[in-house]
Amino acid sequence: MKFHRSLFPYLAAVILLLLIAIFSPWLTPQDPYAQDLAQALMPPSADHLLGTDRYGRDILSRIIIGSQATLCASLLLLIFIALTGSLIGALCGLKGGRTDILLMRLADVFLAFPEMVFAIAVAGILGGGLIQAAIALALIGWPKYARLARGLVLTIRSTPYFAAARMSGTGKIGLLCHHVFPNIAGPILVTAALNVGTIIMELAGLSFLGLGAMPPTAEWGAMMNNGRSMLQTSPWVILAPGTAIFITVATFNLLGDKLRDIFDPRQQPRRQD
Where do the TM regions start and end (predicted)? Predict the structure, then answer.
């Protein structure tokens, strides 16, 4: 239990980030979309704790409201990718045959491309936008979970208890629900937790390139894009959203590391006699 208690600080930090994103419309100190050119590019002060951007908008308010577009969109996208990829991989590993060969070769095709390059190409073809960026990342994200789930299912298929369940007449749905998914949930969860930071950076990266969230939507990557030309004159415009991305990604990575230690005993340090 001592090791599991070490998970609580990171889990509490993630819950805090999620609460900020969910209740962000009520947490912003000012209107994140209100423009005041007389207050443009003001440095951090008592009135604007993180300063203002080129349109006089409060950066702190935009970071808080931007957590919805960045964090919530990334988590929803990750849940979709993990569930879809895991289901495809589990069905392939359980059924085998031509379906397995066809879907795994398709996964190999997607895995053969560099992730970000493929995402940029797809998002560019679709015309840009947060939904289009999510579609592009979904296309490159599902093969990882499909491959992982398939490998885990192939291992489970060779176990005596699985053979006994199949011989007893349990159907494929029953095998998936009672013998497959409970045994692959741990590794899938750890992989998803470690992948949150990557999804956040990729989604923010597409927005930074102008292929994600479109103005005036407050999104951390788009905010960095708007402030990149002012790095030397008004560095707070780009450093504030960059710091928000860094803190969020680091928090989820630390949580993923702790989950990996819990679900994989081989990662735990050995006791010294």
Answer: 7-27, 75-96, 117-141, 188-214, 234-256
Residues 6 or more apart whose Cβ sits within 8 Å of residue 249:
196, 197, 200, 201
At 181, give phi and psi (nearest 5°).
-60, -40
Q: What is the pLDDT of residues 221-240, one digit of tens each?
A: 999 988 888 888 899 999 99
Q: Which architecture characterizes domain 76-265 according to CATH?
A: Orthogonal Bundle (1.10)
Round to whole Å and give the CA distance between 61 and 67.
10
Domain ranges for the chain = 76-265
CA dihedral 135, 138, 140, 144 (to 10 degrees): 180
Per-residue pLDDT tens digits for 41-76: 999 999 899 999 999 999 999 999 999 888 988 999
CB-CB neighbours of 257 under 10 Å? 15
DSSP letter string, 149-177:
HHHHHHHHHTSHHHHHHHHTT--HHHHII
DSSP secondary structure of 259-270: HHHHH-GGGSPP
The 3 state secondary structure assigned to 61-108 is HHHHHHHHHHHHHHHHHHHHHHHHHHHHHHHHHHHCHHHHHHHHHHHH
